[in-house]
């Protein structure tokens, strides 16, 4: 090595790299030159904690709604539609469309409430709603006769969209979507999660019909969902 600090290349075609003094004027001098086999540093890497925080609204919404939907009025409607029409594909697509529209509206309402109401009032409203939902979900649900009335002239898909959307208005899972959106303020994460939860509960109901519906431990599932809602209420209260 010469007195000027330059390296003499004795390794043939392999180049040597020497770090230059870094400073504000040369912020990238500590990085090796790019090329094959060299790692370029600069893009942000999300840590496990940040990924968990981003996934929490989606995962919680999916699990809570899937459990709450077991034995719910809209799942009973899915069983009735499946038994009446015996066409699972348009029924499943109709449930998906109705859920996206309904829960999209509910999620928007939840986010609006979170911004329109003061944080203190919103916190207590969400806590009360979660605890109230924990009690409400333990009450058995029934399907009214007028909600099972279908009009064949509209076709299976349109009939499913209409009846499922109406049945979901003011239902447990719609109210839960409003609360979750207000709690997490993550519209897409919550709506995607609640929609997936609805499909996880209703698609099997459509595919198997009444065959396995009576074998589901509805009370136990609702008890688990009630505990989850109560825990969410307590967590919100303590934050």
Helix content: 55-70%
Q: Strand-residue fraction?
A: under 5%
Distance between the termini: 62 Å
Tally of individual domains: 1
- Shape by Cα distribution: globular
Number of strands: 0
Q: Uncertain runs with pLDDT below 50, 5 residues or more?
A: 13-20, 22-32, 37-43
The tally of helices reads 9
Order of helices and strands: HHHHHHHHH
Main sheet properties? none
Radius of gyration: 27 Å
Keywords: Membrane, Transmembrane, Transmembrane helix
Organism: Pandoraea eparura
Subcellular location: Membrane
GO cellular component, one term: membrane
Overview of this protein structure:
This protein has helices at 48-69, 73-85, 88-116, 119-136, 145-148, 155-168, 172-184, 187-208, 218-238. With 239 residues, the protein is an all-alpha fold. The radius of gyration is 27 Å and the shape is globular. The protein starts with 47 loop residues before the first helix and ends with a helix. 32% of the residues are buried. One of its GO terms (molecular function) is metal ion transmembrane transporter activity. This is GDT1 family protein.
